[in-house]
Write a structure and sequence with these properties.
The complex is a heterotrimer. Chain A is mostly helical. Chain A contains 14 helices and four strands. Chain A has a single domain, classed as ABC transporter involved in vitamin B12 uptake, BtuC (Orthogonal Bundle), CATH 1.10.3470. In chain A, the strands form two sheets. In chain A, strands 1-4 form a two-stranded antiparallel ribbon. In chain A, helix 1 packs parallel to helix 13, helix 3 packs antiparallel against helix 13 and helix 12 crosses helix 13. In chain A, about 50% of the residues are buried. Chain C folds into two domains: about 240 residues, P-loop containing nucleotide triphosphate hydrolases (Rossmann fold), CATH 3.40.50.300; about 230 residues, P-loop containing nucleotide triphosphate hydrolases (Rossmann fold). Helix content of chain C is about 35%, strand content about 25%. Chain C has a six-stranded mixed β-sheet with strand order 6-9-10-3-11-12, with helices on both faces. Chain C is globular and about 75 Å long. The two termini of chain C are about 35 Å apart. The chains are: A mainly alpha, B mainly alpha, C alpha/beta. At the A-B interface, helix 5, helix 6, helix 12 and helix 14 of A face helix 6, helix 12, helix 14 and helix 15 of B.
């Protein structure tokens, strides 16, 4: 009848999909690499300078970087959802300016701290709302936020304002003794406390798991019924809050308010987070890794200080180099996984 | 009239005109120009001359953004270019000669080329996200600049070098002429060749472009090189203006101004169609803003807050949601609003 | 299937978008303890119906009842709360989280405010054991598992939620035979436990294997509801495509092919052997001679576009070879294919064809310009001539080369895209659904054009879901079914019915 030249129907063999080769344990790899890097750097330092190998040198890394640790924590939250916050440095400066000015006018330190936290959190919340409801890229909105906060600093005062208030000066000079003739500052305890809270939120609350889910696959998270919109707004509020706290800590450290302070600190925070193993695309990373990232940045500074001959600009170059290395590693991981 | 208003340059131009008018109202001699010693002077000239570096960088930034990218490293490139040229002049046997100045210029341009190749390599060959790729140079770059200057502000005295930023030629400041030349070059290069159209194609629909046989790698490389060279030339202008290289402060935040100029001028951050003319208008607006603040007697510290508010307003106006809101106030767009309401969830 | 009250009852559902009525008066019933297949071609309304049920779209009119209660779903969360759970083709889980986290995401048991991870672990083990999936490690990262296992985990999540309705949207596209069996075992288990399962798939054989009942949609309207065992494959296909038995014989007119068939003579321009790619298609043998039109026939989702993409280098093949004019070639990118004189007019013109904000002119010369590189611009005068020529030849309206292509109607956009490839004078032109969404007049023009091009010596691979169209233009027809090539027919007095028979899987 009809000249059908039918081939023997082939056995329908469905091709099997490519499998993700990343073994489960590999998810810790980037952060472990950072820990390894830190240890290696410390070891090298100890080898080069005998006085390097001291507990106090290690603790100084924390003491000198309390504000950056808190900033990195806030930045981790934002980056885990796939966003970014460029305003953190400016908000730190704004917090310092506001506190210095109000303290100078005789305000109660407790009230000042509360107000500063409200300002930071409020600004973050505002940015989060604009990002979510107007669907504008976080880069631009937080950039505008940076301008706004920095601009407000200039408006408040162009000169440096000293802080003489007893609570703040007390915090600046206090030393909490530890066994072995070591000490830390109260700021360190506060910073580590915040790290602990952040860790708890990210790993033991639904809010935290939602953050990871959004970074992993926002569309899926939404389809699974998670409160994606609210969470994305809140992470910016959290980041603003952390910036405010970091500003307070920086005030403890420097006992002044200066409108040009903390310039570029947002880059340090981002670098610390990336070096700490968090992917800028979101969904992967640990807040403890970010802390180690801060320590790495701190140890680079320490090296420079110890050397004496190396100038401070090497810090920037080395950080840029480290950033590059970790970005390339992340790219390599992504290629392998695909 | 209505179709003229609909032109995408309409609002930026109107905004600029309004700003200039505002200045004229407060300072009656604002728009006037005078000739002295064969040179043209006036507030408008000042705006153009001060804004020349920003315009230059914004031109490069426009093409990068058109490919859906971004270049955060331009400020660092400014610093490096200024540092390299001034360091060369300072170390050369004949620091005042025109040959030295010429060599310095060449060095700066080559620095820009090298850095542009580096950025392009990361983005197109390795496939790193543009924000992150250029962040590396942004972070390390100023350190490199400081390395070159040895942490000092390197002052030079070379009249030929100085003329780049401060000199005059044919009655106009040289920096304006350079910027105009680069603008012309960019316009010709992108419109006389197919480069402009291909850049837009890659930015508008990279998938369709690939299926049409476009190899985006070279195009992306070119735009990053152009951006860096523009930044290097801006660095020359900035350092020659003060005949010194300040690795810390040269070009600080200029990438932000450039990005703003591009966005205000009408090119979308999402990539695709771009407008060089719009960018120039946008850069003028930003520069005039600074002048306006001064003219109005507002303390200069407020400039930054001003800028922030302008950025937010412009971005809000450009955001599709805001446009939907605005058009919903026009009942004519009901179906669009219904469509938007139907899909409760952005899929 | 023993409850009188359906779990889900949708009555007279209508959903419209500007210019198109996606669903028009559709009824749908789903009972407990059944596997129900939703069948229909592209644009039939299947995914719209599902999105209405899952709260992604709001309905314009009609009612939805769940266990008798009327419901209004405006968010996916509300639909889930009513007991309706969906597993999508792309497995919407979070690959960066572990199995147990995914199963319980958003519903983790808590103790004094913090997540009780031990509880999470034990509950996950419970659920996996219920589905006989104990071998899956709850603490392992989701991305370390194959798509098949990820799907099972998504189903486990639905079970954990105690879903009354489980919607499976194209669950087997990326699965091999063993994995399909495993999936079907789980489905049968769930069905026997009373869950209502809505199964959407293009794989005919699987639908017949697993489903109890079927609902067929066509063009947004309900065709009917049937018991699977009472509906033959032929009847199903004809209901989906829209012909009934008598009408088929009537429509069996002689195809409008005036070209003398070259037959498969001489060296083919292109010869593919064993071509395939993981997760896509496999074992494809295809050859096309100069001046020959080979049609790919098959249902949507069968794998025709995938084959086209492999030949064009849009996707890289894992297995098999391609010979062009007798010489072996590796086609790794569209650029490479175009250099070998192949052109590809894609099916999804919006996402893969149009450069929306550019003009008709720019879109038309794009491929040609890409070949020349950015430095050598096609002179404006030449562009104008070419564009004018093709606008006229293809009757593009409005005949304005400076119009933005996104403002043209679909049909005219398609013509411009077609012109983009014709301008490059390819030796092989792949056309994927070139007449979809186009008016009759334009359709005929394009079909005539195909004939003309072949008569002038071009090889053409013609993909279309409309069988009459395929028959009208093709010299030979390759039938694609379930991701593999099942037959090759010479178009000599072949009818639509014959082709449908082959698709259905049995000789008449």
């Amino acid at each position: 009848m009809s000249p059908l030249s039918t081939l023997t129907p082939l056995t329908v063999k469905k091709p099997s999909p490519a499998r993700n080769r990343l073994h489960g344990g590999a998810r810790y790899a980037p952060t472990l690499a950072t820990v390894g890097l830190f240890t290696a750097m410390f070891a090298v330092g100890a080898g080069m300078y005998p006085s390097f190998l001291s507990g106090q040198v290690f603790l100084n890394l924390f003491i000198d970087n309390t504000f950056l640790i808190v900033l990195a924590v806030g930045m981790t939250f934002v980056i885990l959802t796939g966003g970014i916050d460029l305003s953190v440095g400016a908000v730190v400066a704004l917090s310092m300016m506001v506190s210095a000015t109000l303290l100078q006018q005789g305000w109660n330190p407790g009230a000042v701290i509360v107000l500063v936290l409200l300002i930071g959190g409020g600004l973050g919340l505002l940015m989060g709302l604009i990002i979510q409801y107007f669907d504008i890229q976080p880069f631009i909105v937080t950039l505008a936020g940076m301008f706004l906060a920095r601009g407000l600093c200039y408006v408040i005062s162009l000169d440096s304002i000293p802080v003489n208030e007893p609570f703040f000066t007390g915090m600046a000079q206090a030393q909490i003794p530890l066994p072995g003739d070591l000490f830390v500052s109260p700021g360190v305890l506060l910073a580590l406390g915040i790290v602990a809270v952040a860790f708890f939120i990210l790993h033991h609350t639904r809010f935290g798991r939602t953050i990871y889910a959004i970074g992993g696959n926002e569309h899926s998270a939404m389809l699974m019924g998670l409160p994606v919109k609210t969470t994305k707004i809140l992470v910016y509020a959290l980041s603003g809050l952390c910036s405010a706290i970091a500003g307070i800590l920086f005030s403890f450290y420097s006992l002044s308010g200066y409108s040009l302070a903390a310039q570029g600190m947002e880059l340090d925070a981002i670098a610390a987070v990336v070096i700490g193993g968090t992917l800028l695309t979101g969904g992967t990373g640990y807040v403890l890794g970010s802390v180690v990232g801060v320590l790495v940045l701190g140890i680079v500074q320490t090296f420079i200080a110890y050397d004496g001959t190396l100038s401070s600009w090497w810090t920037k170059i080395v950080i840029g180099g480290l950033l590059l290395v970790f970005i390339l590693l992340q790219r390599l991981f992504a290629r392998k996984a695909a | 009239m209505k179709s003229l208003l609909k032109h995408r340059l309409a609002w930026p131009v109107i905004a600029l005109a309004a700003l200039l008018l505002l200045n004229q109202v407060f300072r009656p001699d604002f728009l006037s120009l005078r000739m002295q010693d064969g040179h043209l002077y006036g507030s408008l000239i000042d705006i153009m001359r001060n804004g020349a570096p920003t315009i230059l960088i914004a031109l490069g930034m426009t093409l990068v953004i058109a490919t859906r990218g971004i270049d955060l490293s331009v400020g660092a490139v400014v610093a490096i270019a200024g540092a390299a040229s001034c360091a060369y002049i300072a170390a050369s046997p004949d620091p005042g000669s025109p040959a030295t100045a010429a060599m310095a210029v060449l060095i700066a341009v080559i620095a820009g080329l090298v850095l542009g190749v580096w950025n392009g390599f990361l983005v197109s060959a390795i496939g790193v996200q543009p924000i992150i790729a250029t962040l590396v140079l942004m972070t390390a770059g100023r350190g490199v600049a400081q390395l070159i200057t040895g942490g000092q502000i390197v002052s030079v005295s070379n009249d030929h070098y100085k003329s780049i930023g401060a000199g005059y030629l044919f009655t106009l400041p040289i920096s304006i002429l350079i910027t105009a030349a680069v603008f012309a070059l960019a316009a010709v290069l992108t419109r006389r060749t197919a480069l402009g159209t291909l850049i837009e194609a890659v930015g508008i629909n990279p998938v369709a472009s690939r299926l049409a046989g476009l190899r985006s790698r070279n195009i992306i490389w070119i735009v990053y090189i152009f951006s860096a060279v523009c930044a290097a030339m801006a660095g020359l202008m900035i350092s020659s203006n003060v005949t010194a290289a300040d690795a810390n402060n040269a070009g600080l935040y200029i990438e932000m101004d450039a990005i703003l100029a591009v966005v205000i001028g009408g090119t979308s951050l999402a990539g695709g169609r771009y407008t060089l003319v719009g960018t120039v208008v946008g850069a003028f607006i930003i520069q005039t803003l600074t002048t306006t603040v001064y003219t109005l007697g507002i303390p200069p510290e407020v400039t930054l807050v001003f800028k922030a508010l302008v950025v937010i307003t412009v971005c809000l106006l450009q955001a599709p949601k805001a446009r939907n809101l605005l058009s919903r106030l026009n009942a004519a767009s009901k179906p669009a609003a219904e469509e938007a309401a139907k899909e409760k969830v952005a899929i | 299937m023993n409850e009188i009250v359906p779990v889900v009852e949708m009555a007279d559902i209508a959903i419209g978008f500007p210019g198109v009525k996606a669903l028009d008066g559709v009824d749908f019933r789903l009972f407990q303890g059944e596997v129900h297949a939703l069948m229909g071609e592209n644009g039939a309304g299947k995914s719209t119906l599902i999105k209405a049920l899952t709260g992604v779209y709001t309905i314009d009119s009609g009612t939805i009842r769940v266990l008798g209660e009327q419901k209004r779903f405006s968010t996916p969360g509300e639909s889930q709360a009513a007991g309706i759970s969906t597993v999508y083709q792309e497995v919407n889980l979070c690959p960066n989280l572990t199995v147990e986290e995914n199963v319980l995401l958003g519903r983790e048991p808590r103790r004094r405010g913090s997540i009780d991870w031990k509880g999470v672990r034990s509950r996950t083990r419970e659920v996996l054991a219920e589905l006989q999936l104990d071998h899956i490690d709850p603490g392992s990262l989701l991305s370390t598992h194959s798509i098949a296992v990820q799907q099972l985990i998504a189903i486990a999540r639905s079970v954990e939620i105690n879903a009354k309705v489980l919607i499976l949207d194209e669950p087997t596209s990326s699965l091999d035979a063993d994995e399909v069996n495993q999936l079907f075992r789980v489905i049968r288990d769930l069905r026997d436990r009373g869950v209502a399962i809505l199964f959407v798939s293009h794989f005919l054989e699987q639908v017949y294997e697993i489903s109890d009942r079927m609902t067929v949609l066509r063009n947004g309207k309900l065709v009917g509801e049937y018991l699977t065992r009472n509906l033959s494959r032929m009847s199903l296909i004809s209901k989906m495509i829209g012909k009934d038995m008598e009408a088929l014989t009537e429509l069996d007119q002689a195809p409008a092919r005036t070209r003398a068939s070259n037959g498969a003579a001489g060296t083919p321009f292109i010869e593919a052997q064993g071509l395939g790619r993981k997760g896509s298609v496999s074992g494809v043998n295809l050859s096309i001679h100069p001046g020959e039109v080979v049609g790919l026939a098959g249902l949507l989702g069968a794998g025709r576009t995938e084959i086209a993409r492999l030949i064009f280098g849009a996707d890289k093949a894992d297995e098999g070879t391609i010979r062009i004019k007798g010489a072996g070639q590796k086609i790794r990118s569209p650029r490479a294919a175009i250099d070998k004189r192949i052109g590809f007019c894609s099916e999804d013109r919006k996402e893969e064809g149009l450069i929306g904000d550019l003009t008709v002119r720019d879109n038309l010369v794009l491929a040609m310009q890409a070949s020349k590189g950015w430095a050598r611009r096609i002179p404006r005068r030449v562009q104008d001539e070419l564009v004018a020529e093709y606008i006229e030849a293809l009757d593009v309206r409005p005949a304005n080369p400076d119009a933005l292509i996104r403002n043209l109607s679909g049909g005219n956009q398609q013509k411009v895209l077609l012109a983009r490839w014709l301008v490059t004078h390819p030796e092989l032109l792949i056309l994927d659904e070139p007449t979809r969404g186009i008016d009759i007049g334009a359709k005929t023009q394009i079909q005539k054009l195909v004939n003309q091009l072949a008569a002038d010596g071009m090889s053409i691979l013609f993909i279309s879901s409309e069988l009459e169209e395929v028959l009208r233009v093709s010299d030979r027809i390759a039938v694609i079914k379930d991701r593999a090539m099942v037959a090759e027919i010479t178009n000599d007095d072949v009818s639509v019915e014959d082709v449908m028979t082959v698709i259905a899987g049995g000789a008449q």
